[in-house]
């Protein structure tokens, strides 16, 4: 099946890189595969693939791939409520991104959104969550692709809403839902929250 073929490709990344596929091709494949698994809520598979991909990227010293791998791993672990492991992976992605200056605005926004979600969902620190969401928004504001920018901002506003609900800042929570609805007036989560 297609999934097994894709997993096989990930296991053979060093060979694939030296063969007909470019790093750009593999990045695209990873992004597409990750999105498919995420839509199917197959986070364990994302964790497994991300770990293999990270090792393959380390072997060829492709830092951008490593950053993407750790980001995907961290976000998948957060979805599985494995918050400590998620924080480790996302902090590694953030450190690599800062050190090598290779993280684009989309991935930087995703890293900080993931960190914020860990603090929010684990209830470890709502204030740290807000700080991370602010950083995520700053990076998201500079994403050049308008559809990616919109998608990230909607996720960020949804999380701002969630953290403000926890803090019982209801007016501020509603403010972020309205900002989300400006971007997507049919957003079911935002409409339900406002109702």
Summarize the structure.
With about 200 residues, this protein is an all-alpha fold. The chain has helices at about 1-10, 15-20, 25-40, 45-60, 65-80, 85-100, 105-120, 125-140, 145-165, 170-185, 190-195. The chain is about 80% helix and about 0% strand.
How would you describe this protein?
The protein has eleven helices and no strands. With 195 residues, it is mainly alpha-helical. Helix 7 packs antiparallel against helix 8 and helix 10 runs antiparallel to helix 11. The longest helix is centred in the last third of the chain and has 21 residues. About 8% of the residues have low confidence.
Record keyword descriptors for this entry.
195 residues; mainly alpha; 11 helices
- Compute the separation of the termini in Å: 43 Å
Question: What sequence of helices (H) and strands (E) makes up the elements?
Answer: HHHHHHHHHHH
Rg, Cα atoms, Å: 17 Å
Structural class: mainly alpha
Helical proportion? Answer: over 70%
Number of helices: 11
Per DSSP E runs of 2 or more residues, the count of β-strands stands at 0
Runs with pLDDT <50, length 5+? 4-8, 11-21
The major pleated sheet works out as: none
Mean pLDDT, to the nearest integer, reads 84
**Portion in beta strands:** under 5%
What is the general shape? globular
Summarize the helices and strands and which ones pair or pack.
Layout: H1 2-11, H2 13-18, H3 23-39, H4 43-59, H5 63-79, H6 83-100, H7 105-121, H8 126-140, H9 146-166, H10 170-183, H11 188-194
Helix pairs in contact: 4-5, 5-6, 5-7, 6-7, 7-8, 7-9, 8-9, 9-10, 10-11
């Amino acid at each position: 099946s297609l999934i097994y073929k894709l997993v096989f490709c990930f296991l053979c990344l060093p060979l694939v890189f030296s063969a007909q596929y470019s790093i750009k091709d593999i990045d695209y494949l990873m992004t597409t595969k990750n999105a498919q698994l995420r839509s199917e809520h197959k986070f364990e598979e994302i964790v497994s693939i991300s770990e293999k991909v990270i090792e393959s990227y380390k072997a060829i010293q492709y830092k951008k791939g490593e950053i993407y791998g750790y980001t995907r791993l961290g976000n998948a672990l957060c979805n599985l409520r494995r918050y400590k492991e998620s924080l480790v992976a996302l902090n590694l992605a953030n450190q690599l991104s800062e050190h090598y200056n290779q993280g684009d605005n989309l991935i930087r926004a995703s890293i900080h959104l993931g960190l914020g979600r860990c603090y929010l969902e684990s209830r470890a620190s709502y204030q740290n969550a807000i700080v991370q969401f602010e950083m995520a928004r700053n990076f998201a504001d500079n994403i050049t692709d308008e559809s990616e920018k919109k998608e990230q901002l909607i996720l960020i506003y949804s999380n701002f809403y969630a953290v403000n609900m926890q803090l019982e800042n209801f007016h501020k929570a509603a403010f972020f839902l309205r900002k989300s609805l400006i971007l997507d007036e049919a957003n079911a989560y935002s409409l339900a929250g406002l109702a």
